[in-house]
Amino acid sequence: MSGHDHSHGAGDGAGQRGKLIIVFSITFAVMVAEIIGSLLTGSLALLADAGHMFTDSAGLLIALIAASLALKPATLKRTWGYKRAEIVAAAGQAALLLGVGGFVIIEGIRRLFEPPEVGGSTMLWFGIIGLAGNAVGLIVLASGRKNNFNMRAAFLEVLNDALGSVAVIAAAIIIAVTGWVQADAVVSLLIGALIIPRTLKLLSETLNVLMENAPAGLDLAEVREHILALPHVIDVHDLHASLVASGTPVLSAHVTVEDGCMRDGHAATILADLQRCVAEHFEVSVEHSTFQIEPAAHRDQESIPH
Q1: Would you list the DSSP string of 32-43?
Q2: 79, 132, 136, 291: most buried by Cβ count inside 10 Å?
Q3: Residue 117 phi/psi, 5° resolution?
Q4: Does residue 55 register a pLDDT over 90?
Q5: Could you tell me which of 216, 211, 217, 220 has the C-alpha nearest to residue 238?
Q6: Could you tell me which residues come within 8 angstroms of residue 171 by beta carbon, excluding any fewer than 6 positions away?
Q7: C-alpha triplet 109, 110, 111: angle, nearest 5°
Q8: What is the pLDDT of residues 114-163, one digit of tens each?
Q9: Using CA atoms, how far apart are residues 270 and 272, in angstroms rounded to an integer?
Q10: Which among 290, 265, 264 has a CA at the least distance from the CA of 275?
Q11: Interacting residues of 263 by C-beta distance below 8 A, sequence separation 6+
Q12: Are strands 233-245 and 248-257 parallel, antiparallel or unpaired?
């Protein structure tokens, strides 16, 4: 049995943590500003958006803690360190966002029938302040969201805030120009319709990781075919693949080879070929691979079904 050990630089993790600190600070500051704005204008829309910001600030704080934990080194007890904390945090954030989306829709329906009185012009300026802060946060997080579940969840948090700010601005303009106060409710419903599909997708992806399903983009049937095509390989079984965290796919398998390979030195060559195969031949590169090389005579000794 043999495995791969690859170190992952702390630079990326430290960079993610730095971005999250910046965005959390901006989000928290905008939340405080919107609370002040709601007190000055009597705007329920601003207060609701501040509530969204509070939820998102909590989510960003969770992401920040997870990014910090991910920098801790592996130990004999925690062999992957705290890498999985990223996935747990992203799932938690997705659950929070789902709750926020549901609240927005329910509150939006209520406001259609019970529209609040708001001061449109002052509300507009606080909406612009919120949008400006969120725009900065989106720019900071944009570069890291594709390769990391935690950063993607944080990006969605800030995008949710930005949509809320746009809603506040749109509602303020419509109310100021037409006096139609139900505009606040209509825009809130549109935001809820945008939040929930993205959140469900993120929640599905994180649950797939927690369930240790095969990484998206890695076809194990194709992997099996490649392995069986290697010289001297007779069979492959107990083939498993999962994702520890973003960018850390792992794979293991039992590979049956011709009996003579265990005596003439071919086993070492086959092992190198197997590791090279899963690391280079597929869309998802698996560098953390573990293969148990078995002679054909060993097949009858295995009794654990998979």
Answers
A1: HHHHHHHHHH--
A2: 291
A3: -90, 130
A4: no
A5: 220
A6: 45, 118, 123, 183, 184, 187
A7: 90
A8: 876 666 677 788 888 888 988 988 888 887 666 667 677 778 878 877 88
A9: 5
A10: 290
A11: none
A12: antiparallel
Q: Residue by residue, what is the 3-state secondary structure of 75-120?
A: CCCCCCCCCCHHHHHHHHHHHHHHHHHHHHHHHHHHHHHCCCCCCH
Whether the Cβ atoms of residue 239 and residue 253 lie closer than 8 Å to each other = yes
This model's pTM is above 0.85? no
pLDDT digits (tens, 9 = 90+) for 162-218: 887 888 888 888 888 888 878 877 877 877 777 788 788 888 888 888 899 999 889
Tokens of 2: 């043999």
> How many CB atoms sit inside 10 A of residue 140's CB?
19
Closest of 73, 78, 57 to residue 13, by C-alpha: 73
User: Residue 270: is its pLDDT beyond 80?
Assistant: yes
